Amino acid sequence: MSNYHIKHLEEYFQVYRKSVQDPKRFWEEIAEEHFVWKKKWNEVLSWDFEKPEIKWFDGAQLNITENCLDRHLPSRGNKTAILFEPNDPSGGAQHITYRELHERVCRFANVLKNQGIGKGDRVCIYLPMIPELAFSLLACARIGAIHSVVFAGFSATALSTRINDCDAKMVITSDGSYRGAKTIDLKGIVDEALQDCPGVQSVLVAKRINTDIHMEAGRDHWLQPLLEEAYADCAAEIMEAEDPLFILYTSGSTGKPKGMLHTTAGYMIYTAYTFKNVFQYREEDIYWCSADIGWITGHSYIVYGPLANGATTVMFEGVPSYPDFGRFWEVVEKHKVTQFYTAPTAIRALAKESLDLVERHDLSSLKILGTVGEPINEEAWHWYNDHIGNKQCPIVDTWWQTETGGMLISPIPFSTPTKPTYATLPLPGVQPVLMDEHGKILKGNQTDGRLCIQFPWPSIARTIWGNHQRYKETYFSAFPGMYFTGDGALRDEVGYYRITGRVDDVIIVSGHNLGTAPIEDAINEHPAVAESAIVGFPHDIKGNALYGFVILKENGEDRDRDNLKKEINQMITDHIGPIAKLDKIQFVPGLPKTRSGKIMRRILRKIASNELGNLGDTSTLLNPEVVDQIIEERQ
Ligand code: WT7
């Protein structure tokens, strides 16, 4: 029996049992057999979910880039590590071999050092999906700097908040980016953000779109000439197992984003292990995850997981709609992609387009399909299965989070029979439980509740940067002794899990995790707005869309409503980014509140979703009369 590569259902159950009965032994064997270490650990795991404190492989020393790069050089030096497909389909793909990637990462690491970056320093990365993005993560990891990637669709304000929260000394960006037929002035956004970031000492700028941009003397440097001058060799910094690898921000229930901190050894082992099993990865495969490296999916399953396995990972700069809605399938055909991993929102958008865009491409190279980011509905699942997988490719519906670092619940293809809309079974080492509202564990099958995990897995985030108390309150306080995911789930008659959605103030829009609080904070900054409440409502492509209920101040009452709506969405775009824009805005005289002054979002959610039949008891509200008024003027 191999712990590392599960090949059938019986084996899954055996491996799973072992991983639960003796987790330390289970992960220790994997760590010993499949990774390179400078020094072995003293203890596989120590943990306390009350504190909370979690340590995996304490005492071990390693560098993740040696596991992702150096060790592959003898056997895979000429194999493509990163297959870059540019925005422009005629732009020519780049095949970057493991040897080339190693050299570029080393040069980049030397550039960072020459700029005064060292172990433990934070480097903010704000780049489009170009190879330099992958190089920059690995270059940071090479020298022990902590990377914090900010998705390049976030606004200047969102960027500066994140830079300041982690005290980044450096920003890596590009002159601009391509997005379908458009270009975006990324450097302009960085310049604006840096007006509020006194701690940033230098900015490295990759040339991508060749625009004439402002370069601040003494602060900004073109990246490419520095890379050319730098040494092509750079010894990997020796890192402790629990040294930070990266910070990645996710939204939460207050306005401030949470900087989830991931550490080195556990993250490496878990992402590599899950990549291998969930994609049944084999040496000759061409694997493509269409996410952006600005999200955790890209960190774990474009960069670290695939490279730790010596895989070929496709990096796609473009969008699914350019030059037409057949682009994904064109890329699959062109590179003979074997595993394709995307988000339900993309599947729903593509399923609306003509089937001819799919059928004109040869998709026979595909073996496994994956989804992530939000629940997949039955219709989208079948379309993906029938038209993309030709009913031959198992679909892995992978449930996980920024906080979990890697997939926790997912089928293992060719082992776990799939079931539409179900993430199915926990991966080895993962111990999910469902809890009722009173904190009781729900035993047995055919039940539903709040999804918690009762035992640590190697890639769980260790803290929120600079705010351990918030980490404890958010994840370990609702159900003491457990990690609380924020999701609801049901368990069917055979023990399969189906994620039903968030049970907190997070809304998943097009697979993006958005907190209501930061959006409300942005709206409330508008001079005519007194108060607001955001809820989600079902949307056939985005999964959920946002509905804003807004109370105006007296000075706003006479203003043109359509202009106000535009200004409100502009506020959101400026503070967060276009992904958080509202689909519907309704101006209301008041918001339904409890006697203690809490907004009753449950009622607003029902109104926004047009479920008016079943609003529940509104008589205990402070202001029941506003409910009827809101219903009357529903958008
Ligand atoms: C939230 C985490 C995991 C990387 C991308 C999102 C939702 C994620 C699924 C799935 C149903 C899912 C959950 C989760 N989610 N995957 N397969 N089925 N829901 O990471 O931005 O941290 O969001 O996404 O609600 O809590 P994230």
UniProtKB/TrEMBL annotation:
It is an enzyme of class 6 (ligase). Pfam families: ACAS_N (PF16177), AMP-binding (PF00501), AMP-binding_C (PF13193). Keywords: Acetylation, ATP-binding, Ligase, Nucleotide-binding. Residues 72-456 form the AMP-dependent synthetase/ligase domain. Residues 12-68 form the Acetyl-coenzyme A synthetase N-terminal domain. Its EC number is 6.2.1.1. Gene3D superfamilies: 3.30.300.30, N-terminal domain of ligase-like. SUPFAM superfamilies: Acetyl-CoA synthetase-like. GO terms for cellular component: cytosol. GO terms for molecular function: acetate-CoA ligase activity; AMP binding; ATP binding. CDD domains: ACS. The keyword Nucleotide-binding applies. One of its GO terms (biological process) is acetyl-CoA biosynthetic process from acetate. Residues 519-598 form the AMP-binding enzyme C-terminal domain. Belongs to the ATP-dependent AMP-binding enzyme family. PANTHER family: ACETYL-COENZYME A SYNTHETASE, ACETYL-COENZYME A SYNTHETASE 1. This is Acetate--CoA ligase. The lineage of its organism: Bacteria, Pseudomonadati, Bacteroidota, Flavobacteriia, Flavobacteriales.
